[in-house]
Automatic annotation (TrEMBL):
Pfam families: Big_10, YkuD. One of its GO terms (molecular function) is peptidoglycan L,D-transpeptidase activity. GO terms for cellular component: extracellular region. It comes from Dietzia psychralcaliphila. Keywords: Acyltransferase, Cell shape, Cell wall biogenesis/degradation, Peptidoglycan synthesis, Transferase. This is L,D-TPase catalytic domain-containing protein. InterPro entries: Big_10, LD-transpeptidase, LD_TPept_cat_dom, Transpep_catalytic_dom. The active site is at H353, C371. Residues 262-395 form the L,D-TPase catalytic domain. GO terms for biological process: cell wall organization; peptidoglycan-protein cross-linking; regulation of cell shape.
Length: 423
């Protein structure tokens, strides 16, 4: 080997000293590496070779879960059919009924779950074909056929007031409004049915269902609602197994708002009706209430008191035909008259209404068969401001105590109401 220096003169140079120095340096490095340990994880740590690197774990296989099982019967028409994949995605789901119709479905955003978009048909047979794909391997398909429940009894609910009128959305009701869930036939399993009957309020109000008979449940809070409360009632029964061999018919729901606090107090001691608006007295009206006493006609015993208790306004009509024969009092000893400005308080036919012919008695003598007579002007005024759910308290009259079937929901003690079973 030769080295060039300054380009013009060439001579041989011995390499032994250089080799010696290189060897000495290597020895020093080896000794240093033995006597000065390098902390784990420091810049001095050696890098593993490719052969020592850990291998990445293999992806988990896709797992499909489908309900119901193949060949299943009595499948719930709501929430009874569903497909779910883990560690993969659903690539195609086809549900067809026994007439060959394809049923729409809802696929989750991440394509991991699917369910029908509509309520399936009672007694129908369906075929579900689910194709799914994992991170490795090809697509797989699961196919199964099943039959939905075919109940002999379907419960169909409606939402009404205690007076039987429809409970309506987007309107205001009085602070004492009672929600009534009425079914078209007796309920076999009240506990199960109640799981699908919900009342939501804003602000939150504690309340409870109370069964007034075997097909009707009423809901009320412990105290009157506050003005402005928003109420949502849902009977989520469609396709539900309600127990006792009964399944639910079409669901129903309403949303409404509580209006101003209007309370009318009819006091037999003063023979007046005092009307309070948001707890302020706004009007006092003379009245003539039920004359009292008992009578029996054709085996039917009846009384003529305006029963004391707490009522709510059920509905109102500008004219009402009063016919005593509808509750058993013959016309020859009763009446059939048309009155104006009727505000109904009971299903038996107790009203506030105008009656000019009894104005002489209003404020001093009870002469009616149970209604609360008012002058035409007072009856018109009360009619104009009354809404369903307004409170009417009758005080100091005779006769029997008001019962729940007489629009007496607010007469039931809260401790009794909470037990929920009146019938």
């Amino acid at each position: 080997m030769s080295l060039s220096r300054f380009g013009s003169t060439t001579r041989s140079v011995a390499l032994a000293p250089l080799v010696f120095l290189a060897g000495l340096l290597a020895l020093l490095l080896v000794v240093s590496g033995c006597t000065i340990p390098v902390p784990t994880g420091s810049a001095g740590e050696t890098t593993p070779t490719e052969t020592s690197e850990a291998q990445a774990p293999a992806p988990a296989p896709a797992t499909l879960r489908v309900t119901p099982t193949d060949g299943a019967t009595d499948v719930a028409v709501v929430e009874g059919v569903r497909a779910l994949v883990e560690n993969g995605s659903l690539t195609e789901v086809v549900l067809t009924n026994d007439a060959g119709k394809t049923i729409d479905g809802n696929l989750s955003q991440d394509a991991s779950s699917w369910e029908p978009a509509v309520t399936l048909g009672y007694g129908r047979t369906y075929t579900l074909e689910v194709t799914y794909q994992g991170a490795t391997g090809g697509p797989k398909t699961d196919t199964r056929t099943f039959t939905m429940a075919n109940p002999q009894t379907i419960l169909r609910p409606t939402l009404v007031t205690p007076g039987g009128g429809a409970l309506e959305s987007d309107r205001e009701y009085g602070v004492g409004i009672i929600v009534a869930a009425k079914f078209d036939q007796p309920v076999a399993d009240r506990t199960t049915v109640e799981k699908h009957m919900t009342v939501t309020t804003e602000p939150s109000v504690e309340g409870n269902w109370f069964w007034v008979d075997d097909a009707t449940a009423h809901w009320r809070p412990e105290d009157y609602y506050a003005t402005g409360t928003r109420v949502r009632v849902e009977l989520d029964t469609e396709g539900r197994n309600l127990g006792g061999g009964q399944w639910g018919g079409e669901s129903t729901e309403v949303d409404f708002t509580i209006g101003d606090r209007r309370v009318a107090i009819a006091d037999d001691e003063t023979k007046t009706v005092s009307v309070f608006h948001n707890q302020e007295l706004v009007k006092t009206m003379p009245t003539s209430m039920g004359k009292g006493g008992w009578a029996t006609y054709n085996g039917v015993t009846m009384h003529f008191w305006t029963q004391r208790g707490t009522y709510t306004v059920l509905d109102k009509a500008s004219t009402v035909v009063m016919d005593s024969s509808t509750y058993g009092l013959p016309l020859d000893v009763g009446y059939k008259v048309t009155v104006d400005h009727g505000v109904r308080l009971t299903n038996e036919g107790i009203y506030f209404h105008a009656l000019a012919s009894s104005m002489w008695a209003q404020g001093n003598t009870n002469v009616s068969h149970g209604c609360l007579n008012l002058s035409p002007d007072d009856a018109s005024w009360y009619f104009d401001q009354a809404v369903a759910g307004d409170i009417v308290e009758v005080r100091n009259t005779g006769g029997p105590e008001q019962e729940i079937w007489q629009n007496g929901d607010w007469a039931v003690p809260w401790s009794t109401w909470q037990r929920g079973a009146g019938a």
